[in-house]
């Protein structure tokens, strides 16, 4: 006889584990099923974000940034170093330790909130009276019944058609995080978030990095002014970025990988590298879910079809995160997970897709929320713009990091903030103020009138808001 739960969550990534915790907080009997394991075979909840994405990549970015600062900028502070070395094995060990802390933190939260955790793969068995039977396959197989099911199975990296990942020379994001030595030459297909972040890590440590991007524009999803500023910084750092390329034959050999491609002018080119990272997007992960057993509707991409409330075509079955429509972002998944748990409880869970922040953790960092200037132009929206450079910010000067600016876009008639775009130091943290302001439909004048600490990077946000009315005080 199977255990019965009010809510069963399949997947313990950001959307899944947060949904399980919130449902438990609301008084439901909850189970969460996840099959991710670490190298020792122990449970490793947290999904791609914790194990092979957000968390480990930020750990490596931080380590490589420290190394770059020591190698190139400590002298400006009067700090002298001799025989600077990078111990890659120790860097990876630290990264693994950070990941483990997060894994253990999630398991602790499950215990604290009385969420029953099953380590294994969850899949639909059949519809039963009042719910669904879910099979758990793994070291301890089980069959459980749930009245409400939340699918949060995430996504997996997309492979090139004729070149599967071997994680030795042709790498996904997982392999890119596990390289045990700095490659002399590193190739990356895709100049999006993953490509830029991984390229930055290994470039700082000495690799010659070339990124091949099929699109003709760099970071076309970001504000064009921000993209141009970021591109200048990356060029200065030595990241070689080629746009508008058409990748052809890829050959894997004993000494590395050779990529044949046509550049933007249609000229045949060859790139020989020691390692090749492929970051051409991700696909929803629904394999093994056995959706057909209960008639769960899937889309052409393998995604689960949901409405604006994350409801599937089946009563009592919901889906959140990368496995459904919308941006594949951990914080988007978390918001959907909370919203679904609250909807199950009869509350009015809410996610504003227009206020989801986007962040790229390179140096400079890039972050934005709301609409870009090119979007406003295309939509025919009358707007005002204001920018303020970090070069004129006292805290940025003290940090020795004055690249970039803050940009505000506001409605020309009402002054309501329509978008905020940042390229520069700690953009990932500064963007939160913009999200709060836009959530309350604040005007640029509201931000301009709020006292910001001095000296602080956030003063650049205030100054950019002042710039909308052409009255900056420090530039």
From TrEMBL:
<keyword id="KW-0560">Oxidoreductase</keyword>
<dbReference type="InterPro" id="IPR004099">
    <property type="entry name" value="Pyr_nucl-diS_OxRdtase_dimer"/>
</dbReference>
<feature type="domain" description="FAD/NAD(P)-binding">
    <location>
        <begin position="5"/>
        <end position="337"/>
    </location>
</feature>
<dbReference type="InterPro" id="IPR001100">
    <property type="entry name" value="Pyr_nuc-diS_OxRdtase"/>
</dbReference>
<keyword id="KW-0285">Flavoprotein</keyword>
<dbReference type="InterPro" id="IPR036188">
    <property type="entry name" value="FAD/NAD-bd_sf"/>
</dbReference>
<protein>
    <recommendedName>
        <fullName>Dihydrolipoyl dehydrogenase</fullName>
        <ecNumber>1.8.1.4</ecNumber>
    </recommendedName>
</protein>
<dbReference type="InterPro" id="IPR023753">
    <property type="entry name" value="FAD/NAD-binding_dom"/>
</dbReference>
<dbReference type="GO" id="GO:0004148">
    <property type="term" value="F:dihydrolipoyl dehydrogenase (NADH) activity"/>
</dbReference>
<comment type="similarity">
    <text>Belongs to the class-I pyridine nucleotide-disulfide oxidoreductase family.</text>
</comment>
<dbReference type="InterPro" id="IPR050151">
    <property type="entry name" value="Class-I_Pyr_Nuc-Dis_Oxidored"/>
</dbReference>
<keyword id="KW-0520">NAD</keyword>
<dbReference type="Pfam" id="PF07992">
    <property type="entry name" value="Pyr_redox_2"/>
</dbReference>
<keyword id="KW-0963">Cytoplasm</keyword>
<keyword id="KW-0676">Redox-active center</keyword>
<feature type="domain" description="Pyridine nucleotide-disulphide oxidoreductase dimerisation">
    <location>
        <begin position="356"/>
        <end position="465"/>
    </location>
</feature>
<keyword id="KW-0274">FAD</keyword>
<dbReference type="InterPro" id="IPR006258">
    <property type="entry name" value="Lipoamide_DH"/>
</dbReference>
<dbReference type="InterPro" id="IPR016156">
    <property type="entry name" value="FAD/NAD-linked_Rdtase_dimer_sf"/>
</dbReference>
<dbReference type="Pfam" id="PF02852">
    <property type="entry name" value="Pyr_redox_dim"/>
</dbReference>
């Amino acid at each position: 006889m199977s255990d019965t739960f009010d809510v069963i969550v399949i997947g313990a990534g950001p959307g899944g584990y947060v949904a399980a915790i919130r449902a438990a907080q609301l008084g439901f009997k909850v189970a969460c099923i996840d099959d991710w394991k670490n190298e020792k075979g122990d449970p490793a909840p947290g999904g791609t974000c914790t194990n092979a994405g957000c968390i480990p990549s930020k750990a490596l970015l931080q380590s490589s940034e420290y190394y770059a600062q020591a190698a190139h900028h400590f002298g400006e502070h009067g700090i002298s170093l001799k025989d600077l070395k990078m111990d890659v094995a120790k860097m990876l060990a630290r990264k693994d330790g950070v990941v483990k802390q997060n894994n253990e933190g999630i398991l602790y939260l499950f215990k604290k909130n009385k969420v029953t955790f099953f380590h294994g793969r969850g899949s639909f068995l059949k519809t039963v009276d009042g719910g669904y039977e879910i099979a758990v396959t793994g070291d301890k197989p089980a069959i459980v019944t749930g009245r409400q099911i939340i699918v949060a199975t995430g996504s997996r990296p997309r492979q090139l058609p004729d070149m599967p990942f071997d994680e030795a020379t042709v790498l996904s994001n997982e392999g890119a995080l596990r390289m045990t030595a700095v490659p002399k030459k590193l190739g990356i297909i895709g100049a999006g978030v993953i490509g830029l972040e991984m390229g930055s890590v290994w470039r700082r440590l000495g690799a010659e990095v070339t990124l091949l991007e099929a699109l003709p524009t760099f970071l076309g999803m970001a504000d064009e002014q921000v993209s141009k500023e970021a591109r200048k910084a990356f060029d200065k750092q030595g990241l070689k970025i080629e746009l508008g390329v058409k990748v052809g034959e890829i050959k894997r050999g004993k000494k590395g990988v050779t990529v044949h491609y046509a550049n933007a002018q249609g000229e045949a080119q060859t790139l020989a590298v020691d390692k090749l990272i492929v970051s051409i997007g991700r696909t929803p992960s629904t394999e093994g879910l056995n959706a057909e057993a209960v008639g769960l509707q899937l889309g052409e991409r393998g995604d689960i079809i949901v409405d604006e409330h994350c409801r599937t075509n089946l009563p009592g079955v919901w889906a959140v995160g990368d496995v459904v429509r919308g941006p594949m972002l951990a914080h988007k998944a978390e918001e959907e997970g909370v919203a679904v748990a609250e909807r199950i409880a009869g509350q009015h869970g809410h996610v504003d897709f227009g206020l989801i922040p986007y962040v790229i953790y390179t140096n400079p960092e890039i972050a934005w929320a709301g609409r870009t200037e090119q979007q406003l132009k295309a939509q025919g929206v009358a707007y005002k713009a204001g920018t303020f450079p970090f070069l004129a910010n006292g805290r940025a000067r003290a940090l020795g990091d004055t690249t970039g600016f803050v940009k505000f876009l506001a409605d020309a008639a009402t002054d309501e903030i329509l978008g905020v775009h940042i390229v520069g130091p700690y953009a990932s943290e500064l963007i939160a103020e913009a999200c709060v302001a836009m959530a309350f439909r604040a005007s640029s004048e509201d931000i301009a009138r709020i006292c910001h600490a001095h000296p602080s990077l956030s003063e650049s946000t205030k100054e950019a808001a002042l710039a909308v009315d052409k009255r900056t005080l420090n530039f």
